[in-house]
Hints:
Deoxyribonuclease I, Chain A, disordered N terminus, alpha+beta, 12 helices, globular, 2 domains
Amino acid sequence: xxxxxxxxxxxxxxxxLLAFLFGHFPAWSLDFNLKDEFCSKSLNxxxxxxxxxxxxxxxxxxxxxxxxxxxxxxxLQEVWRESHREHLETKMLNRFGLMNSVFYDVTRSDNxxxxxKSLFPSGTVLLASSHIFTVNRKGLLDWFRxxxxxxxxxxxxxxxxxxxxxLSQVQHLNTHLxxxxxxxxxxxxxxxxxxxxxxxxxxxxxxxxxxxxxxPKSLEWYLMTSxxxxxxxxxxAYENPDNPNPCTYCRGNPLSLDPFRSRRIDYIFYxxxxxxxxxxxxxxxxxxxxxxVSDHFGVEAELNLSATDSYLVxxxxxxxxxxxxxxxxxxxxxxxxxxxxxxxGVHRFVAPAKDLLQRFQNPSLEDxxxxxxxxxxxxxxxxxxxxxxxxxxxxxFVDEEQL
Length: 403
């Protein structure tokens, strides 16, 4: 299924399924015994023109996937070339049988492609859309990529899984953010946020997966977690005493283009909903064994879903501006970065960031984002009693470009 930017295509049958799922949500949500578990993978496939041995690496990817086991969702980035897409789909089809997959082809005058591919082996895609990032150019390399028809984007999918009503509510985002500019990445997250800050977005759980090109505790990471309420599956559920600091772009990978640094820049973020709790049970690095399939290692998260009469907890008091000092500090820093940026197009995102800041400086429970963050179990995400926040409040954000 090929999609143009912002255009959604689905059949009448799928429309009826959508109406059933979303229109009848309260009916099945009354069964608070509903539980489910699933897994999700994400991998940057290293698919540009300078990515060598792509056909062999694709075969190795399929072999690794068979050993690891299929997940209900598999998000891929950098599937830019048509031959890569066809080879990948053929190998997956031959090995695993018919799979429901969507290739998000962002079509415009220059025939740009986002390279985002999503595989949902046991589900049916009901609704899918893809959106080119408004800001994605900095320097000669980006100019050259545009000439080759390569663009960055995010893609969203709603997937129906037979007899799995909780999993069918999960909204899937797949993305690949800018490779070097933090300013551009911030605008790209703010653009994606229009999907998961809409009023109705808080009644459905979310997965946001992909290559974010930003390290944990970076400004981008705080924007996703503290401001928008997502949780990092590795922060929540990764346990490996033999490798306490996992990386996904690692100097030990012979395909890496950076032999000096190791860092984690690939993520599976998740967020619960009002009546559906989404919880990471385990997280691990995958595709990190020879034969290596990409310059990135992949990530996998095992997640649990459970229906509840209310995921949110009762608060006796109303939120005040000081309760959201962390979120305001993050957004003030974002605004300062965007205002001082010399990159074309970045300044247009200052206004949306200021609007967000106003919501936290004048919090109201009538604001669905404020209401959701205020009533989350355990309090606000990554609150100020965590050790690293002292340095964080002094503005000591980790910037991947400075590592």
